[in-house]
Structures are given as C-alpha cells and as structure tokens.
Amino acid sequence: MSYSPVKIGGPFQTGLVTAYDDSLLPPDGFTELSDFHINDGRIEKRSGYRFLSHMTHAPQTAITGITQADPAVVTVASASGLSNGQFITITGVVGMVELNNLRFKIANLSGTTFDLQDEDGVDIDSTGYTAYSSDGTLALAPGERIMGIHRYVSPDNVKNTLVFDTKRAALWDDVTKNYDPLDTADIFDSSDTDYVWAVNWQHSDSDNRLYFSNGKIYDGSSLNGIRYFSNPSGSSTTTTSFVPDLNASASRKLYGAKLLFALKDRLVALHTYEYNSSGPTTTTHPQRARWCQAQGPSNWKDEVAGGGGFVDAPTGDHIISARQLGDAIIVFFTDSVWALSPISDPSLPFVWQKLDDKRSCDGKMATVGFNSNVAALGTRGVVSANGQQVVRIDEKIKNFTTNNINYDEFDKVFSFRDLRNERVITLYPSGTNTDADSALVFDEASASFSTYNLGMNVLGYSNDGEDFGLDDFIAANDLDRSIEDFDTEMLESYFWQSDQEGIIGGDTTGKLFVMQSTLSDDDSQFPATFTSGDISPFKQEARSQFGYLDLYVEADENTSLQVDFFKDDDVSPVVSKKMNCLPDLKEVGEIANITQANPAVVTLKNHGLTSGDEVYIYGVQGMRSVSGGPYTVTVVNENNVSIGVDSSGFSEYTTGGTVVKRLYYRTKVWKRIFAGGIGYSHRYKITTLSGSQEFILHAAKAWFKPVSRRTI
Fold first, then answer.
1. Contacts of 61 (CB under 8 A, 6+ apart)
2. Residue 610 and which of 118, 297, 445, 672 are 20 to 30 A apart at CA?
3. Global model pTM greater than 0.85
C-alpha cells in the first residue's frame, strides 16, 4: 500500500495546546511551541533583542580624561555625588570607545580622579585601548530593576520615552543615545512589584503631562504617590510630586493611587490613598474611584457638585487592575469584575456596574486592552471582559496559569500588546523562579498561544531608540549577505525603520534592550523548538508507518534543524535527522570539520569532487566567515578538500555546514525528511540547531501507510 498524506498546516491556526491529551490534538496543534509564534498562518521563530542602554541616575558629569594605564584612571569635571563602590556607565567617549556603554565600579576616588574597575571589582587595564581623545559622560548606574516604560506626548505631539526603575526616572536623549537621569534625588522607594502606571493628560487648557504612580502611598515629603512629567519646552529634567487638595481647607489630600486613567475630560484614580489631618493620617480606599473636575486636572475638591468627587464600589473586594474599554473602565477586583461607566449627572459622573463575581485577575500588570474587550490573567486562567460579561478564552491551554506560573510571584506577571504584530506578550515567572523568565504569547488573528524563553521584567513602546540601518543590521549579525537577500517580510520582522514604533524591554538589573531587532538575545544564541501531537491518521484502527515529513520553509543559507520522530509512548526518538533550509543547489555533502589553516581544509566524507571544481559553503556555525564562495577546491583525499582560503584568523569551526555547487538564492522550498517508524501513534519534534537563525514554516504534510490492524 502506498503512503497517503496528512495535511498538518498551511495555514497554521491551532498553536500550543496543553488542555488535551496529545492524541486529541488537530494536526497543527503542538504540545510544545517554544520561542516560536504563529503569524499570518506561518510558524515563525521569534526575533531577539540587543542592548540599548543602562538606566542611569544623577549625578551626570563630563569626563575630561582617561589614561592608558593599569588601572585606567578617569578624570571628571566634578566628582560631586560620586563615591567609592558606586557603579557608573560611560557614554560618548571619543577615542577610547572600548569603554562606551559599559558598567564600571569607582575605586580610589581622590579629588576629581578615580580608578576604573569592572563590576566584580577587578581593575580595568586600558594600556591596549585606543587613546582617549575627548568628550564622554558618566552617570550612576546602580542596577535597579526596570519597573515601567511609558511615553510622554508633548503639546506638539512629539513622543518621548520615559523609563522608571525602583527609585528614579530617566528620559531618552536622542543626541547621546542614552536614557538621561531626571531628578537629583530618589522619587520612589519601590519594591520589586511596584510597577509604574502612567497616563497622558492632553487637554488643551493645560500643558501636557504624563501622570504616573508606583502605587505606593506618598510619604508626605518626597517619595511615592502620584507624580507628573511635563516638558513643553523640551528641556525639563525633573518630575513633580502631585498631591491635590480634596477640600477647600486643604485638610484632606490625595496621597496616591494604584491606577490612573484619563476619561471623559477627567483624571480618574483607582484604589486611592487619602490624607486627613483631622482623622487617621492616611486611609486606603481599595474600592474607590476618585476623579478631578472636568477639564481641570488640578481641582479634585469634592465639596461642590461638578467639581471633583468619588464613588466606592459596593463590595469588600480590592481593586487589582483595570483597563479602559471605550468610554468605560473595566476594573478587576480580587473576586469580582466591575465596569466604571460615565453617566450624564455632573454631580456623580461615574457609576459602578458589576459584571462577574469570579476571581479573574491576580496581577496589577496582568491585563491588556483590545478594541472590544479586556483580557486578564489570574491564577484560575485567562478571561475576557467586554462590558457585559466575562468569559474564559484559554480553552486550548486551560491549566496553563495554574501549572506554569509561580503562584507566589503572580504579581510579577506583566502583559503587553504588540500592536504592530497584533500579538500579546505576557511575561511571567515560571516554575519556582522569582522573576519573569518566560512569556505566554497570544496571536490575535489565529487566537493561538505559544511561549518564549524571555527574561524581561517590563516591555514598552518607543520610537526614540537608536535607529540602525540595513548595513548595521547585517554586519551586527555576521551575515555575509546583500540587502537583496532579504525579502520585505523578513526585514520587517527583525527591525524597525526610523520614526516607526518599536518595543523596548527592561530587565531586573537596570538594562534596556531593543526588542525584535536581531537574531540573538543580547549576543546570546537561543534555539527554538516545537513538538506535535499524535498526527497518525490510523491511530484508531491500525499500526502505521510514518514514511516521511514534507516541510515548506523559507529558504535560508544558515538555518539547520534537527527533526526527531517518536512513536507510541516512547520518550526517545526512533529516528533523528538533520536538515538544512537550502533550495536545490546541487548538494555535495555535509561538513564534518574545517581547519584554521592556510589553506583551509574541509572534511567532507566521500565528496566525489575533482580538483578545480567550484563550490559554495553555507550553514557553518562558528567559522561564519567561510560562508559563501565560490571556492576552487583541491582534492586532498576522498574525505578532504582544501578551498584556497586562509582561515587561520577565522573563528573556530564548531558544527554544521553544507557544500553545494550552486550560489544560494532566496525562495521558499519543500524539504523532505524520511522517518520510517512503525507504531500506533506518531509525533515529530523540530529544533533549530543554532540559536542565531531565522526559521519560518509555511506548510507541512506527513505521509503514512497502515501496516497492521489493531488487536485491542
């Protein structure tokens, strides 16, 4: 009997499925879909990120000299605010550029000079560095975790990105290509769960402001509470504490809020902290919505109808998170969901409406808004609220939040909507990890899920980040390609053009990264993998033989895969094969080794080549500089040829690589991998063999034939 095909995908729609036994999955469902996502019906490996900047604090001071010595000695214009043991970052140095954008420790401070040490306290030997010429700035870089990334919209609609850590705020400087510190003293004393919430106020009767809060009570002096940033002239270097009066005598004040919104010409604060000089000094109101006067963000007095005011939800639950939905705010309490909706009563412009009485959200940042609904993650699952009802939307991964997210650290879950790619990325601590190390990914078009291994603490939008050109992008990834080798979709997947919205991420050590900008994570390669469910078409009636698997992939000269085939309940593969993603280039064979020598010798078993033949080399890992050609070979023996190039200065060969007779070209190509296993059920697993690789799967087919009938 001949083999018959099973269509696996093309388009792919199902994605990750953990709620069912793998025998019940549709062909395009996966029990594992790690560092991949579904995009327009294709399975794509996610892109990586590159370092952008350290989060810095004041003081910021000019560098006037750096010695070529061991240790390097730095001279600054002023050492005010500096002390031994502090961490700093250096930017903008001309000449000794080896020090730019790195983090160091101050040692042996004397006057305006100090020794430079690395983060571990080892002296920096700069004797072999380029001589210092001029310029340079240093700023404190204490390494506090990043707690928020928000954009301030100026009166002329220019967007500037602010970054917050547990103590300070910083603003992107497009000249220095760095986040320059705001304020000269701490504005927060945040814990590792006090994420910064922010909202822009853009009414024409007021200068534009970005109001923000770390969700903690104002200390009555300088820390926490609500603050704002205003920069109409483009030169502001401070943020301002915002403690509005709640009555004419100023005996009551707003001392903070967990959440802030701009709705119907009013600034709305949820879960408020309030000061009263005649009663308890400060009181927490976890069910309260309080607002300012319409078009008057500085007037919160609630004594006169039409001014400021408040309304408490009639529940004992506490406000956890919220998102705006049209003209309403969907608010998630500890064990219920409510809508705060506007009405046409100037004395009471908002009312509470209960939507659901179930626990739906367990993290301040575990919500995200869409055009027609708001989604939230809780320990019980993922839900959607549309203003009338709350429903589960995680049928495919029903137990994911319970089984995968560290229950004790659920308040570190951080959801972010990637508008350009119509994708939601939710950072979470997995297993017993105490900080976010993974991400649950939701593709809006297919309603499918996947996961990333991603160690970010927060994500946010920015169109202020450093804009790399095409040549920078190619060189940075060591891809010896011309621009024409990339199709438009591939280019758009990995970086953004100038003035386009991009995404930046912040980690727990004060570092900021440009997301979706490269093929590796801060120069660290990451493999990706997916595992199918049981795809046998005969599983209910017969044992079958898995003949072969056809994959319709985006051709790539560097991508290589391992394909493992499993049968029945075996945990070890019955067959393992390696596969490249090259089109038909008249393959000669797979490379086993390349020497660092002059000339380089390539080990190629039973190559069948003749001296004088021209070949090309693709897919080599380690010695990436050898990729390409053409090379004229000289036969050494039946398993080795020299290629007439001096590779002694190249990186050491590690693995992989294919010798072919034709020049690589960009296309899509069907690749066939033979399996052969016989069993009642069949699964396959695909893993990228090198972390710094692209991989896009457009479609797949599997071929089977029955071998014998089931006896049970």
1. 76, 77, 78, 79, 80, 81, 82, 137, 138, 139
2. 672
3. yes
